[in-house]
Fold this protein.
Amino acid sequence: MTPSPLTVDVLLLGAAGLVLLGGALLGRIVLGPTAPDRVIGINVVGTATVVVIAMLAAALGEPGFLDVALVYALLNFLLSIGLAKFSIERGGVL
Amino acid sequence: MVAADTLAVGSLVVGSVFFSLVAVVGFYRLPDVYARAHAASKSETLGALLGLSAAAVAFGPGAETFRLALLALFVLVTGPTAAHAVVRSAADAGVVPWTADRAVADGGRADAGVTGAAPAADRTDGDGGRP
């Protein structure tokens, strides 16, 4: 099913809003003040990116983008766990 | 007359952007890493689920629905798990949780310092009033 032009516009607007919110969060990531704050902020931006990719897949009618979103979500999770385990405190996490 | 699927996609997208906005506002306003992880892991996960639902409704029934459901399940499991891991490592590294009395002592702003930043006398009666 191809979405109607209005649905495409709504999805693109939502994706643009999420991109703007991610850009706003970058300021908080720069401010810090500690490393865990930054890791959690980057995790939130990554989750928003996954949603943006999924919305673009629906708006542009490209189901292949969903595989990209899935791999991006995997890498996002791996980044947070890796930073929590090896950058902040060695061992004992999870 | 707006079609029903457009209306559903629109409301789901609005909900997604709203809860992501709540997460961002919480990230700016909340005082320490534990409270920020709370805002991030709950609001952002709900916003992501609503956004993925909007994409699923726009795609309609088919193979994409299965992949989006897989993606939503993954986001639902990994978002809070990642926040939990980061917060637990922060607790192991000695980040002191924010409390109201220490915020007053610090002049209203308690940056989440590591162990040693807070004076020792503050820590001995740090659980003031709690059983």
Summary: Chain A has one domain: 5-85. The radius of gyration of chain A is 16 Å. The mean pLDDT of chain A is 83. Helices of chain A lie at 5-31, 35-60, 64-88.
